[in-house]
Amino acid sequence: MIQENPAGIETRLDPITLQVMTNAIYSVADEMVAALVCTAYSTNIKDRRDCSGAIFTRSGQLVAQGEVGTPLHLGVMLPAVRTALRSVPPEALDPDDDIILNTPYQKVRVILTM
Amino acid sequence: MAIDVESARRAIHQEVAVPLGLFLEQAAEGVIRVINSVMAKAIRRLSVEKGYDPRDFTLISFGGGGPLHAAKLATDLQIPRVLVPFAPGVSSALGLLTADFRHDYVRTILSKASLTHVDQLIKCLADLWAAAAAQMNREHVDTEGITFLPSLDMRYLGQGYSLQIRFTLAELADWKTLGPLVSRFHDSHRAAYSYSDELAETEIVNVRLAAIGQLSKPNFSQLPETTEDTVSAVKGSRNAYIDGKFETVCVYERSKLMAGSRIQGPAIVEQVDSTTLILQGQLGRTDEFGNLMIILEDQQ
């Protein structure tokens, strides 16, 4: 679905490819939420679905937010991810690393590596 | 049904191609690409929510239009094979007439696995078994031939969603503890969500028993075997726009395919109730009952 482009990322996409990519990236975000809800212990997650899944670029730009979840989080996701990336630059992150923070406007408190 | 190609061209041109600045065929293929990506998204989400990876399955494609999309959906979702039944347009009706009787029985017990005894499960399943046998008896299904499929809905204590853990009545009779079921649950959880917690308490939510009363099976006629190529089933060729370019694609008549027929993609297979598209690099193979299996390039 997504074609490799060795020369780098294309800056212009045709409208069809854009829509196809949009659906694919949204489905990743939706899958994240589905897995989180199905495995959650917290009533806030498993019953109220008070959670969101989203895909960001390395520089902290929002690409897609899952359709299942809480639209309200749109406002806090952006500063939360940017705060996290300020404290832990993307090049310091390894696959499977998690960042946990509960103060989105301040420094990251805990970094947990699985 | 008569199809007006010129009207279709005009509509796509005016409504899609011109506003988006695309060629006619680009626009038409774009419509298909977008709808395919929406279907792929739905398949992924429904599978993941149930804890299944679509890559472990065969995509069964039916309905009049399904087989037009299936080969591309399988490619995008990395599903290794597509099964197109011999009459995809009437598969649901055929299933309605020939499917076995099935009744599902469920009892909620909400019990920690560590505090549940095998005997409790045996007793519970015996009750469900008796209810199933009585109902099948009322429906005049031969009770000798009933298949029973027991399972438990299990989760880690505190979770809201459970996974279905299957076992057989014979296995259960052999087990002294619920240990094997608990370890089967950990395995399922790991397979579905990539982790398990062996130290956590597990909970049994429901005890389930599916009872399947078998009806006599219809006798489908078998197709003659062939080792020859499929030239005799070719009814022509067509200039088709696939993946951004025109190419000449062989058109096959489905009813002329025999057991063992092989079709190399790209190909179009037409039949009275549906049309199947096989893509470049994919292989179509017919079995003795006329089912068409499309095998993806990296699976051949």
Short structural summary:
With 114 residues, chain A is α+β, with helices and mostly antiparallel strands.
Uncertain stretches of 5 or more adjacent residues of chain A? 1-6, 108-114
Structural class of chain B: alpha+beta
Task: Please give the radius of gyration of chain B in angstroms.
Answer: 25 Å
- The SSE string of chain A, one letter per element, is HHEEHEE
Q: How many helices of chain A in DSSP terms?
A: 3
Please outline the major beta sheet of chain B.
5 strands, mixed
Spans of chain B of 5+ residues with little confidence (pLDDT < 50)? Answer: none
Helicity level of chain B: 25-40%
State mean pLDDT of chain B (0 to 100 scale).
92
Measured between the Cα atoms of the first and last residue of chain A, the distance is: 31 Å
The overall strand count of chain A is 4
Major sheet size, sense and barrel closure of chain A: 2 strands, antiparallel
Notes on the structure:
- The complex is a heterodimer of chains A (114) and B (300).
- Chain A has 114 residues and is α+β, with helices and mostly antiparallel strands.
- Chain A is 38% helix and 13% strand.
- Chain A contains 3 helices and 4 strands.
- Mean pLDDT of chain A is 78; it is low at 1-6 and 108-114.
- In chain B, the strands form 3 sheets. A 5-stranded mixed sheet of chain B has the order 1-2-13-12-9, with helices on one face. Chain B has a 4-stranded antiparallel sheet with strand order 3-6-4-5.
- In chain B, helix 1 crosses helix 2 (24-49) and helix 2 (24-49) crosses helix 3.
- In chain B, strand 1, helix 3 and strand 2 form a beta-alpha-beta unit.
- The model of chain B has no long low-confidence stretch (mean pLDDT 92).
- Chain B is α+β, with helices and mostly antiparallel strands and 300 residues long.
- Chains A and B meet through helix 1 of A and helix 2 and helix 7 of B.
